[in-house]
Design a protein that fits this description.
The complex is a heterodimer. Chain A has twelve helices and 35 strands. Chain A is of the alpha+beta class. The radius of gyration of chain A is 30 Å and the shape is globular. The chains are: A alpha+beta, B mainly alpha. At the A-B interface, β26, β28, α7, β35 and α12 of A face α2, α3, α4, α5 and α6 of B.
């Protein structure tokens, strides 16, 4: 009995020892350094499950980038996993082509490829790998990889090379309680990524430049080596280019000085001060109710004709620019505002943008609108002559960028009016409950993810108050930073400040594409002092309605929850009723028709005549131009 | 020389100012044809709305966008109507050119009947000139578009915004100059045909090119000066109208009067273009009689 007990104990001891050795092998390889181990250890402590250690070298003579590195991914879930989803590198840029041997890209004894590789490919950017042995909770998957990318034309550099590396390395998909949430790469929707630690080494010839987060440079006889790191970040993205002007500007954020790196296009250093001013203003504003960003920001100006859109990645803001962009057009300032806000709502909070892009882009658009108005005042309408020259006014007809019928003047655009024209063009696609990836094109996506949410939040703000919305945003940020919230998480925060009527409106704003249109249909005089007002709801969207009845001497106010299709209000008034108006402050920005929000007993002519005379004059001028033929 | 041409032109316009009424009336009627549908939409939208008075005072951007959206279907049809009326206007202006040149050429015979006689007499010939001018305009615009595409391609290769900006600006400047050149040439062809009573348009072009080749400096300087006078008028109008308040409502009438004064001024500039062309052509084409002293 005693001997059996000793043998059993010995077996248990041996098993435990073996297990600990296996764990050591998983987390280290033959070349593991102390640094790497502590890097992973820090990841575990910070509850980050993945880390990426990647080296990139640009070989100028070959016109190629050589990538090599390792992914370490820790299974923190209680489930054992036998498959893992990985996004592969993809280039949307015609200038760069990835050369990947799909069967041999990964070097790991933990995964297996079967003969038919098509079984693993969801599409060319998303792969499902089988594991030899299930990965239990706490186990680490280690994948080494190597591949390269070639420039499409080796001659296409020296003066105007510009490459943006996003989705440039293999990445493990996000794992949640329900399993892996994996998507193929998308043209304009940001990849859904988990918070990871990055250690990146970029080696390039000295002639070239790099923009990346948290980089430090070492000269290495003709080459520059950049060591970059990011902690707890959804991605690491970088730019590789020549010929941009590098500036470092010290900016003030809530009393502390920090450096802002700006890379601007040749011959375009006019905007450096504006970028610095805008970033300083916006970060100061956001720091009042959110954390300081965990990294310094870099601003990169995109080339005019590049395929890239303005985007915000951890530590980097890439912005399109116009060669002529007056301060009072606010285009530059607004763009920077939305990109800075997206640092918070898209990179520190990381929603699934394939489902609800609006959580990142829409919230950023709302915050940007508030910040731009605060720091740069009112916006006025502009149109462009010959593509580049902004002229204050409106234009109605043009040919080949030459305005034919136009008016010059100061036409103020109120809050919410910045993009509302596009909302009217595409509001069939404004249902925010539809997954963002479902929309057929970028314009439709833009309306549902950026414009409609901005308008919805501005409308809510008018009903609930700016303080309430600001507090809700702050709570949302504090509760969900470094996590992956969904739409309901955000809306639950907003609901805290809502009464019953506002809740119905909130639902219609965020869970549907319903339109809003209330109209005062008529005012009837039933007797000497008795009146009846008929108010109708022309569309499906419901919002609370404030009704003002204007008499000769005073104004009577009523409130209606807006739920029925029509509402008859009977009231007595000794004074003559002149008009009835609903939503007099135009709180509901999504109301399709402000002109039917009021009803005046007498016919009104002056507005129509005033405009008609202007239109008449414009046509007269147009005929003078076109009548000059012959 | 130029001063005497301009003075002579202004005198001729003053002598024939009654025809301004006809030009202005026609311009107004055609503009009204296009304005009535828009007024109807505006009235439908604002008839019982409080916004009506507010819009008379201040422009409301949101209302404007909503108005465009609400009447989108009707607005989509407006360009077709606009271009149709522009076509009609071109035909009518061709007729009026014939009448104008006739009465400007012979100040003593400048009755309304002479005007219409001239319009009828030269309408067919001037239409042919107009068609040639239209073809030339079409060629210019097509070439302009092709050059634009080529320049965009070049600026993509060189990735230079500044290059794109400069080339586009130069392109538009050249386009405007070419439009001006064709307008001047077609005006002078009409004058040549009318004054020399040519029946063949081809000969009219040939004679005009000969004339322009001998007098191009004078022609383009006169054209430039008359254009500048026209531009000055527009600037003065824009300056004055800023100070006209929007309320009370009778200031709308004042604004309308100022607008019509500008239109009449621009129509008189149109007449001045014709009168200076006639004056210059007659002056430079006149036979030189030797001095017998």
């Amino acid at each position: 009995m005693k001997i059996i007990s000793i043998i059993i104990l010995f077996v248990i001891f041996a098993a435990l020892t073996n297990l600990s050795e296996n764990i050591s092998e998983l987390v280290t390889d033959t070349t593991t350094t102390t640094e790497q181990t502590s890097f992973i250890q820090k990841s575990i402590e910070a509850e980050v499950n993945s880390f990426y250690d990647i080296s990139v070298e640009f070989i100028e003579s070959e016109g190629a980038f050589i990538f090599s590195g390792a992914i370490s991914w820790i299974n923190s879930s209680p489930s054992s996993l036998d498959t893992i989803y990985i996004n592969l590198p993809v280039s949307r840029d015609k200038k760069v082509k990835y050369i990947i041997d799909y069967e041999n890209i990964f070097n790991s004894n933990q995964i297996e490829f079967v003969e038919n590789k098509n079984e693993f490919f969801i599409d060319s950017t998303l792969i499902k790998l089988a594991l030899h042995t299930p990965l239990k909770q706490g186990d680490t998957l280690k994948l080494e990889f190597a591949y390269k990318a070639e420039l499409a034309s080796k001659d296409e550099f020296k003066d105007n090379l510009f490459l943006f590396f996003k989705d440039w390395h293999p990445k493990v998909a996000v794992y949640s309680d329900s399993g892996f949430i994996a998507y193929p790469h998308h043209d304009y929707i940001k990849s859904y990524s988990d918070f990871s630690n990055y250690k990146i080494k970029l080696k390039i010839p000295s002639y070239f430049q790099i923009a990346a987060a948290n980089k430090s440079k070492i000269d290495d006889s003709g080459s520059d080596i950049y060591n970059c790191s990011l902690q707890n970040s959804p991605s690491f993205n970088w730019f590789f280019f020549t010929g941009l002007i590098e500036s470092s500007v010290e900016i003030d954020i809530v009393g502390s000085r920090t450096n802002l790196e700006i890379y601007s296009q040749k011959g375009n250093d006019n905007y450096i001060e504006r970028y610095a001013d805008a970033v300083s203003n916006y970060l100061t504003s956001m720091n009042h109710f959110m954390d300081k960003l965990p990294y310094n920001l870099t601003v990169v100006e995109l080339p005019q004709n590049s395929e890239y859109l303005s985007s915000s990645y951890p530590g980097i803001i890439a912005t399109e620019f116009e060669i002529i962009s007056p301060l009072n057009s606010q285009k530059l300032e607004y763009r920077i505002g939305s990109l800075v806000a997206e640092q918070y709502f898209g990179n520190i909070i990381v929603p699934n943008e394939f489902e609800s892009s609006w959580l990142s882009k829409g919230l950023s658009a709302y915050v940007a609108e508030k910040m731009v108005r605060k720091f740069y005042g009112d916006l006025y309408s502009y149109f462009n002559f010959s593509t580049y020259y902004p002229i204050r006014g409106l234009h109605f007809l043009s040919y080949s960028d030459i305005p034919l019928i136009y008016t010059i003047g100061n036409n103020k655009i109120p809050e919410g009016g910045r993009f509302i024209e596009k909302y009217y063009q595409y509001f069939n696609y404004s249902d925010m409950s539809v997954e963002s990836a479902e929309y057929p094109g970028y314009e439709e996506y833009e309306v549902s993810s950026i414009i409609k949410p901005q308008l919805a939040l501005l409308t809510l703000e008018k009903f609930l108050g700016q303080e309430s919305i600001t507090q809700n945003l702050e709570n949302y940020f504090r509760n969900f930073r470094y996590s992956h919230p969904n739409a309901n998480n955000f809306l639950n925060e907003i609901k805290n400040g809502c009464d019953e009527e506002s809740l119905v409106m909130l639902n219609d704003l965020f869970h549907s594409g319903k339109r809003f249109d209330y109209a005062v249909q008529e005012i009837k005089k039933l007797s000497e002092q008795e009146y009846e007002v008929l108010i109708v709801r022309n569309e499906d969207g419901i919002s609370p309605v404030r009704i003002s009845i204007n008499t000769e001497l005073d104004t009577l106010d009523y409130f209606w929850n807006g739920e029925e299709r029509f509402k008859k209000i009977r009231f007595n008034s000794r004074n003559e009723v002149l008009s009835v108006e609903i939503d007099p402050e135009q709180q509901n920005l999504l109301d399709l028709n402000f002109s039917n929000n009021s009803y005046v007993m007498e016919n009104q002519y002056w507005g129509s005549l005033s405009f008609a005379t202007r239109v008449f004059f414009w046509f007269q001028n147009a005929f003078l131009i076109f009548g000059g033929i012959g | 020389m130029i001063r005497s041409i301009i003075k002579g032109g202004i005198k001729l316009v003053a002598l024939n100012k009654k025809f301004l009424l006809l030009l202005w009336g026609t311009n107004g009627v055609l503009a009204l044809v296009l304005t009535i549908p828009i007024f109807s939409m505006l009235f439908d939208n604002l008839q019982h709305s409080l916004l009506s008075d507010k819009l008379a005072m201040n422009f409301n951007y949101m209302w404007y966008l909503q108005f465009r959206y609400l009447y989108e279907n009707l607005f989509d049809k407006l360009p077709l109507l606009f271009y149709s009326v522009v076509g009609m206007n071109a035909l009518i202006q061709t007729f009026y050119s014939g009448g104008l040149i006739t009465v400007l050429n012979n100040p003593k015979k400048n009755h309304v009947s002479d005007f219409f006689y001239g319009g009828v007499k030269y309408w067919y010939r001037f239409m042919k000139v107009t068609l040639v001018a239209l073809v030339l305009f079409a060629i210019i615009f097509i070439v302009n578009d092709l050059i634009g595409n080529w320049l965009s391609y070049i600026s993509q290769i060189y990735n230079s915004v500044l290059l794109d900006l400069l080339t586009r600006s130069a392109r538009y400047l050249i386009l405007l100059i070419l439009i001006g050149v064709i307008s001047v040439i077609s005006d002078y062809v009409n004058v040549t045909i009318a004054l020399k009573d040519l029946t063949k348009v081809r000969i009219g072009f040939r004679e005009t090119f000969k004339f322009i080749r001998l007098n191009y400096t004078l022609i383009f300087l006169v054209f430039l000066i008359v254009s500048v006078i026209g531009a000055v008028g527009a600037v003065v109008y824009n300056f004055i109208v800023i100070f006209v308040p929007r309320s009370p409502f009778y200031f709308l009438i004042l604004t309308f009067i100022l607008q019509q004064l500008l239109i009449i001024f621009r129509l008189s500039i149109t007449m001045l273009f014709h009168s200076t062309a006639v004056f210059l052509f007659k002056d430079q084409s006149a036979d030189i009689i030797s001095d017998f002293s």
